[in-house]
Design a protein that fits this description.
399 residues; alpha/beta; Aspartate Aminotransferase, domain 1; 2 domains; 7-stranded mixed beta sheet; 4-stranded mixed beta sheet
Length: 399
């Protein structure tokens, strides 16, 4: 059978050739073995600064045991969507556990964080409604907003005054209104001004929604997220989180009132039309939340922040621009996309995996290397990384 591109898809080949000519083309790096702070990609051992595995839980012994035990007891899959025959007792126990952890009435788990964001927004709003959204919100929020067919108004990043301007201009909007923000922004690592946004939501009668993907397990007591970090309990109607970053597995969740969750059972399309998590993943997530609530979890979060502060401080001493970052997500700003991709390639050759990010993930002219420090990086790993960053950065004129 021929595998050549047919004429109908020739435009894709042309687009790829254009990326190659501008030195923006990449191939997927293949992880061989476990997701660890020092790992093997494409046959080369490198210090890994590109994983969302904040607390090192992807390989934690307690999570491994939970997955193995659940598979032995309950099999490898649920066999159906949640609304037919795929809701296992394990799923309900996990959702109750997450709701307690986040301080809400109820929770529903989705197959991914992307599905949780997109599914929730598209379910609760329609074409008569209004969404007020930070300009740097995650792609899953953007897609959910578009799927809802609501009117979308975008405010300048973290600009409370600009957000209030939109709120004032739409004060008499006839439909429902949603104010939505990331808790921690995934490309810049900065934290949303949540108390001020909650003030606006209450003043202008907006539903308040926060995507806490990159703050769960990172900010707040025991990693409870931005809402806990800012002491905004009871002021956020919809909390979205992920099970695939600090929690170490896969999936997403929405927390809120019991009525919200019951409504999503009936109307959230990713929930209605996707098979539920296998027992192994569900039990793994249960073990992770139990760990976050333990002294070991507290110790891991403290180590994460100690590593983060050390790494940021040393990057700034070297002269790197780390942008607005306030969290373990630390961009190294480069500007020109081709140079950022070359920086990433050279770093890999020297023994560091740090992925370049350019347009359309970030705006034109704001390409960067995106780094994430974890709790399980050793101080020697970070010192070696800083030596390599300094050498390659100087050779490319970045510092």
């Amino acid at each position: 059978m021929s595998t050549a591109t047919r004429p109908q898809l020739a435009y894709l080949t042309a687009a790829l050739d254009d990326l190659k000519s501008r030195r923006l083309y990449f191939r997927l790096r293949i992880l061989e073995g476990e997701q660890k702070p020092v790992a093997t990609f494409d046959g080369k051992e490198v210090i890994n600064l590109s994983s969302n595995n904040y607390l090192g839980l992807t390989t934690h012994r307690a999570l491994r045991r939970a997955a193995q035990d659940a598979t032995k007891r309950l099999g490898v899959g649920s066999g159906a969507v949640r609304t037919i025959a795929g809701t296992m007792k394990l799923h309900m126990e996990l959702e109750e556990q997450i709701a307690r952890f986040k301080g809400t009435e109820a929770c529903v788990v989705f197959q991914s964080g992307f599905a949780a964001n997109a599914g929730a927004v598209a379910a609760i709003l329609g074409k008569e409604d209004l969404i007020i959204s930070d300009e740097l919100n995650h792609a899953s929020i953007i897609d959910g907003c578009r799927l809802s067919k609501a009117t979308i108004k975008v405010f300048a990043h973290k600009d409370v005054k600009d957000c209030e301007r939109i709120c004032q201009e739409t004060a008499n909007w006839p439909g429902k209104k949603l104010l939505i923000t990331d808790g921690v922004f995934s490309m810049d690592g900065d934290i949303a001004p949540l108390p001020q946004l909650c003030d606006l939501a209450e003043k202008y009668n907006c539903i308040m929604m926060v995507d806490d993907a990159h703050s769960s397990g990172v900010l707040g007591r025991g990693g409870r997220g931005t809402i806990d970090h800012h002491n905004c309990h009871g002021r956020v109607d919809i909390q979205v989180g992920t099970l695939s970053k600090a929690v170490g597995a896969i999936g997403g969740y929405v927390c809120g009132s019991r009525d919200l969750i019951e409504f999503l059972y009936h109307r959230a399309r990713p929930f209605l039309f996707s098979t539920s998590h296998p027992p192994s993943v569900t039990a793994t997530c249960q073990a992770a939340f139990a760990l976050l609530d333990s002294p070991e979890g507290e110790k891991l979060i403290k180590k994460l922040w100690a590593n983060t502060k050390f790494f940021k401080r040393q990057l700034k001493k070297l002269g790197f621009n780390t942008g607005l970052s306030e969290t373990p997500i630390t961009p190294i700003m480069v500007g020109e996309a081709a140079k950022a991709f070359e920086f990433s390639r050279r770093l890999f050759e020297e023994g560091v995996l740090a992925v370049a990010v350019g347009f359309p993930t970030v705006p034109e002219g704001k390409a960067r290397i995106r780094t994430i420090v974890t709790a399980t990086h050793r101080r020697d790993d970070l010192k070696r990384t800083l030596e390599i960053l300094a050498r390659v950065g100087k050779s490319l004129g970045i510092i």
